[in-house]
Amino acid sequence: MGWGDGWEPIKGTQQILVAPAAPSTTGKATQFSLAAAGSLTGIAQPDFARNLVYSFSAAVTSCTIVATGLNAAGYPATEVMTGNDDQTGNVAFSQVTSIAVTAVAGGSGKTLDIGHGKKMGLTTPIAQSSDIYKVTIDGVDSPVASQTISAAYGTITFAADPDGTKRFEVYQKGD
Fold first, then answer.
1. CA distance 130 to 102
2. pTM of the model
């Protein structure tokens, strides 16, 4: 089939991520003491838009963490995490402007490390996971069904973890 025979190319976008670093629970410059609520300083920025992971040195009674910044598409984003144990965020931040522990109980003598996870942000929002029609990892097609895609958060978790060497390509439907 050719042009004029009913065949049309798929219109959309392509996002290429070259050598994203491996996920890490120690992505920020220093540990944050959980003795009291406060704001974190020295926040290490992600290499690509990624989710945040929160790792406590030991369980706390309760903790509320508020992260703000920009998502992969460049829009303001906020994520609130509550709990008493390690947490994995859903928002993929391209830039983190602040992280604050707004409430903590049972944190005396404990610390919090914040790193970058393996959920990668999509620079073009999607309405549904089927808007992703092709994925390649190191130039080899990887079934879309093998990836974890969230339209709600605009993220993709690839079938192979980033390790600082892999090249990921995501093809999205669009206008």
1. 37
2. 0.88
